[in-house]
Amino acid sequence: MKDALKDVLVIELGTVLTAPLAGMMLADLGARVIKVEHPEGGDPFRRHAGKLYSPHFAAYNRNKESIQLDLQSEAGKADLAKLIAKADVLLDNFRAGVLPRLGFGDEVLKAMNPRLIHCSITGFGAEGPYKDRPCYDAVALAISGLASQKLDPERPILNGPSLSDNITGMYAAYGILGALHARERTGQGERVEINMLEASIAFSPEGFSQFTRLGVAPTPMSRVAISQSYAFRCADGRLLAVHLSSVEKFWLAFVNALERPELLTDERFKTAALRTQHYTLIAELVAQVFAEHAYAEWEARLTAADVPFAPVKTVPEVIQDPQVQTLQPFYTIQHPEHGELVAIHRPVKIGGKRGPSELAAPVLGEHSAAIRSEFSLS
Question: In the beta sheet, which residues pair with residue 36?
């Protein structure tokens, strides 16, 4: 099972993040992924740190091959057609209508390769008033309602990693795997469509269920209040997060660890529903308690009480964490031009093994000559 998709050939017409992530996930399962890039600069993600090999690009393109093709030229289109004829999957994140304008519409692709699975990733889908608009992570976050559940309206600052981009890429890989399985029964390829708007909506179903059933629109505090999730600053400045859920034993253990028995007798906090209602008040009261001791004291107390908690760690701290070092999600790759690179294993084990992940992200056109020879390209 270490090469679950070893007989699958993927042609990736992907740039930046969504399609490259989907392609990398398939590559991590053993698929052969040939990334088609424009001769002048390739994937724009390459240029984020100069020298056409940014950390951003390397993070989303391991285990792939790179070939340069100019899809505006007749020769480039002819070469792409030869690759498509042999492929199992064609993956792109162009705007709606771009591939047909290049001469690769649905009927053309089906004639070229009836078994082809074509996964098309767009911002807003192939129809509707927004279909021609450009879409990136912040746009999808905003229009899908995700941002309204994360942003402080008084201080609207977007922060953290790409969510809509990553979510969409994962759903794309999920759709491709389903189509590959269906092809085993039917022998026919399928068109897999996914857009960033719908993917982002699907990723946060509880907010929409809450509104459609109860008529209550979620706010940035809705989920954390229901789940009783908090973040506190200790006396030494360290931050920690606590997630008490709705399980009564965790609230009791938490209060005992705080040594504040008056919280247990306070009528405002008697039930999970009341604690949800008074979430902000609890956060304010408990924040004063955490400010009394350093993190080490709270770590000892909360661990002894079996309270679900963790320190808020930075990326360097995560790498050094003992549990992370036990799991060993990171590994190193030697790149002939860029030296030792750190990569991340796929987080899924199959048959108890992670599978091989040995190819660093390619330099632009690194495999052009070999691929041209293999597929008789111009």
Answer: 67
3-state SS assignment for residue 307: coil
Strands annotated E in the chain: 9-13, 32-37, 64-68, 89-92, 117-122, 191-195, 229-233, 239-243, 309-311, 330-335, 339-344
Is residue 342 within 8 Å of residue 271, measured between CB atoms? no
The set of residues, in sequence order, having a beta carbon less than 8 Å from that of 266 and lying 6+ positions away, is none
| Angle at which helices 368-375 and 74-86 cross, to 10° | 70
How far is the C-alpha of 100 from the C-alpha of 106, rounded, in Å?
7
What is the C-alpha end-to-end distance of the chain, expressed in Å? Answer: 36
Q: Given this model, what pLDDT does residue 152 score?
A: 81
Answer left, alpha or beta for residue 125, where phi above 0 means left and psi between -120 and 50 means alpha. Answer: left
User: In the predicted model, is pLDDT for residue 2 greater than 80?
Assistant: no
Which residue would you say has higher pLDDT here, 116 or 360? 116
The pLDDT, as a whole number, for residue 246 is 85
Residue 3 banded pLDDT, cuts 50, 70, 90: confident
Give yes or no for a contact between 8 and 110, defined as CB atoms under 8 angstroms apart: no
State the CB neighbour count (10 A cutoff) for residue 208.
Answer: 14
Q: Counting runs of H as helices and runs of E as strands, what totals does the chain give? A: 18, 11
Summarize the confidence of residues 168-193 as an average pLDDT. 97
Q: Read off the pLDDT of each residue in 297-310 and give the average, rounded to a whole number.
A: 97
Question: Cα–Cα distance between 39 and 71 in angstroms, integer?
Answer: 10
Are 18 and 198 contacting, i.e. CB atoms less than 8 angstroms apart? no
Furthest-apart CA pair in the chain: how many Å?
79
Q: Which of 188, 49, 59, 35 lies closest to 114, judged by CA?
A: 188
Distance (Å, whole) CA 136 – CA 60: 16
- Residue 69 CA to residue 293 CA, distance in Å, equals 61
Q: List Cα–Cα distances, 304 to 29, 272, 282, 309, in angstroms.
A: 40, 23, 22, 11
Task: Please give the DSSP secondary-structure letter assigned to residue 217.
Answer: -
Strand pairing class (330-335; 339-344): antiparallel
Average pLDDT over every residue of 172-176 = 98
The token pair at 335 is 């790149």
Catalytic residues: 165
